[in-house]
Write a structure and sequence with these properties.
The protein has about 140 residues and is of the alpha/beta class. Helices cover about 25% and strands about 40% of the residues. It has a single domain, classed as Cytidine Deaminase, domain 2. Strand 4, helix 3 and strand 5 form a beta-alpha-beta unit. The longest helix has 14 residues. The model has no long low-confidence stretch (mean pLDDT about 95). The protein binds zinc ion.
Length: about 140
């Protein structure tokens, strides 16, 4: 099974971002490394850096990331030798499951999508090669 590994510290940063951005959806790009098992049966997405970005929609039900933020994030990732391992956003008033718009964009951006729901749960999903989406295991670890 594929997993996303995130530290407690990164989780706190994401929760603080969610609180600051409330009642709008908050979003962030997660940079890190991807490890694939020898038999290629599973992938591990390890988050190394949270890159906070603005939700240019300023909406409670959708988010978009501006071009300036995207360029800044990709510059940062390339200078730190990291790749995109996740797209994080919040659902201030609904659960941590992809919306219809999310499902559409998840097909275009085949990295884990990490959603923090209004109830406080966080879940990760990824496109399942055109067969809808599958949930990933989300592992919380101490920094180190
Ligand atoms: Zn969403």
């Amino acid at each position: 099974m594929d997993s996303v590994i995130i530290t407690y510290e990164q989780l706190s940063a994401l929760r603080r971002l969610a609180d600051r951005t409330y009642p709008h959806e908050a979003c962030a790009l997660l940079a890190g490394s991807i490890e694939v098992d020898v038999d290629r049966s599973s992938s591990t997405y390890r988050v190394r850096q949270v890159i906070e970005v603005d939700n240019v929609d300023r909406s409670s039900v959708s988010f978009s990331i501006g071009e300036d933020d995207l360029l800044r994030a990709y510059d940062l990732m390339s200078s730190n030798g990291l790749e995109l391992v996740g797209i994080f956003h919040t659902h201030p008033f609904s659960n941590a499951y992809p919306s219809g718009k999310d499902l559409k964009y998840m097909q275009i951006n085949p990295v884990p999508w990490i959603i923090l729901g209004g109830e406080g749960n966080m879940r990760a999903f990824i496109t399942d090669e055109g067969k809808g989406v599958k949930e990933l295991r989300l592992l919380l670890v101490s920094a180190g």
